[in-house]
Amino acid sequence: MQLMLQQFPIVVHALNVGFLQTLKLFLVTGLGAIPLGLVIAFGSMSRFKPLSLFTRLVVWIVRGTPLMIQLLIIYYFPGMVLGHNVWGSGETGRFLASAIAFIFNYACYFSEIYRGGIQSVPVGQQEAGLVLGMTKGQIFYKVTLLQVIKRIVPPMSNEIITLVKDTALARIIALQEIIWAGQSFLKGSHGIAGALWPLFFTAVYYLIFNGIVTVALGRLEKRLDYFR
Amino acid sequence: MKKILALTLAALMLLSVTACGAAKKDDVLEPAEAEAEATEAPAEEDATEAPATEEAETTEEPAEEEAEEPAEEDAAEAEEPAADDAADADSDLAYVQDKGTLVVGITEFEPMDYKDEDGNWIGFDADMAKAFAESLGVEAEFVEIDWDNKELELKNKSIDVVWNGMTLTDEVTTAMECSNAYCNNAQTVILPADVAGDYETAEDMADLVFAVEVGSAGKEQVEALGYEFTEVQTQADALLQVKAGTADAAVIDLLMAAAMVGEGTSYDDLINTVNLNSEEYGVGFRKGSDLADALNDFFAESYADGSMEEIAETYGVQASLIEQK
């Protein structure tokens, strides 16, 4: 116990550094995947058959393969197979590769949520809009999207909370996020070796952060509680 | 609605093109580009209300071919540099000197590579790597890697050398160009302290279930003895198994055991017992790299002038040092 108290400040500092990477990856993925998901959703709903089939094929591939494998392919494929490592060797390249893998992966999941949301708005409303002389753009923004945003908040919250924890997968390409930081004390880091508790302690970070995310999303849901 | 669609598709195309620019080409991004190419024409047609679905379909096909062709070209390109490398055998040393940094792949492992309080990499291996880089006229850059992926990292050129108390096993020497051995090590059995007295030799341990690091030298030892074992991610995980009682014993590096079990650690109720073998540490480079020879020369020099031993003494590993000629 005494020992743990001594180690605590050092460990918390190292975990904070790791958590900053986790947070960065989470935010970048969110900012990238939320709009990209909408684009993919439009693609898969397109009335132009080859486009929608193709988009669905891509979504199937991305959702159907493990994110861990996608990370490995994105990071190691250019250097190993194409003979030119575009990522460099440092942290930046690893982060960039992780961000691209996560954005693409999550955009595909988000796109299906968007699609469900958009298609859940009855066609009758669009017809009513047309009768009233609204343009398709007006109908989409003022009638459909308004209701879509409200409806997709709960399923999106699910994905966003999963994303917080999924960022841990990036350690497979040695992105030094919080799990990596916690695990390094097992082997020895910052003068502490063979310490088990920092790894378990990382769970507290996730728990608190997900608590904040849950509250924020809950508030958003409440604010969007217009109609009925 | 169509305008939005056309705009978003254009955006998607841009996105995927920039993504490909950064990533060159890889499996996941390739479809994205093909998608963008395939969708570009139809999107325009949609916008102009041209009812040419047939035309659109024909544009779809070339787009796919296009996507395939560059891939083939890339494969060809990939072969060329490889051929260059083979022909120009000196290239790895030249490559490192050209870019001015020697990127050293490590995992944090006291006393070989670890961080001091200011976050600088120190340790016997780290200091030797710095000295070696200096002798080449370049700077050493340390990068933490996932140990399972060390060969991948070398081939990917995201690191130039694996220098982290690496045991020279058959697997390692086939996959990498290795230096001469520079340090002695052993695989040691870790047992809970309260039962350690019952197991004095390796033969006594036949009924135990072992935890070993995947692909490690310890695993080879247990396999050779024919004992039951579970593979885990790291040596630290192996200790965790013993601590948690999900395995009876673990096999890890002796040098590491010194730092990881006993008083002052979370494993103060574990101790190291029998050494199963003796083995040697080496440094690994890309297959065929001339850096290995350069390092052997450097080892010989620094052993002769005593600087290698001096560094070893700093980290308490001088007893394990192997003479370099």
What do these coordinates show?
The complex is a heterodimer of chains A (228) and B (325). Chain A has 228 residues and is mainly α. The longest helix of chain A is centred in the N-terminal third of the chain and has 44 residues, at 2-45. In chain A, α3 packs across α4 and α5 runs antiparallel to α6. Chain A has one domain: Orthogonal Bundle (MetI-like fold). Chain A has eight helices and no strands. Helices cover 79% and strands 0% of the residues of chain A. Chain A has helices at 2-45, 49-64, 67-80, 91-119, 123-131, 136-166, 178-187, 197-223. In chain B, the strands form three sheets. In chain B, strands 1, 4, 5, 6, 7 and 13 form a six-stranded mixed beta sheet that branches. In chain B, a hairpin with a 5-residue loop joins β2 (114-115) and β3. Chain B is an alpha/beta fold and 325 residues long. Chain B has helices spanning 2-23, 29-48, 53-87, 91-99, 124-136, 150-155, 170-175, 217-225, 235-244, 254-260, 291-304, 307-314; strands spanning 101-106, 114-115, 121-122, 139-144, 161-167, 177-178, 183-185, 187-192, 209-213, 228-232, 249-253, 270-275, 279-285. The termini of chain B are far apart. Chain B has twelve helices and 13 strands. In chain B, α1 runs antiparallel to α2 (29-48). Chain B folds into three domains: 2-87; 91-184 and 280-320, D-Maltodextrin-Binding Protein, domain 2; 187-277, Periplasmic binding protein-like II (D-Maltodextrin-Binding Protein, domain 2), CATH 3.40.190.10. Chains A and B meet through α1, α2, α3, α4 and α6 of A and α1, α2, α3, β2 and β4 of B.
